[in-house]
Amino acid sequence: MSYKEKSAWVMCLALMLGALFYGYAVLGMTAQTAHSPLTGIVVIYVLIIVLISIVGHIIAALVSVDEAEAVADERDKLISVRANSASSHILGLGVITGVLMYLLGGDGDLLFHFALVSLTLSSIAEYALKIYFYRSGV
Hints:
By secondary structure, this protein is mainly α. Helix content is 83%, strand content 0%. It has 5 helices and no strands. It has helices at 3-27, 39-63, 65-68, 74-105, 108-136. Helix 1 runs antiparallel to helix 2. The longest helix has 32 residues, at 74-105. It is flat and about 50 Å long.
């Protein structure tokens, strides 16, 4: 397994764990607390992703020292472009849906949740597609 694929696994895991925390925290809110500031939840969400990705990338780099500093070749670039292109549709659809919900209901918190969840799902899809493309031999 190449360093780039290990990196995709690390980021996919970090984003999924962050998304699980965020989803659990937001879905556990009551109607009275749903409009309270979410700064604490978002900070913890970001810290989860950052800490897991730092530790995971250090471990991946220690396991494959030579590959970690290698420049991306044509295959790596193609995989990155294809995964990014496909995952961007998720981000666009989620943000447009959030804006439409905002225009219909006027709830800015809902727009924020749609944007953050769309960004997270898009990133998870991007890294999952990278893993798929590396495994399928693109």
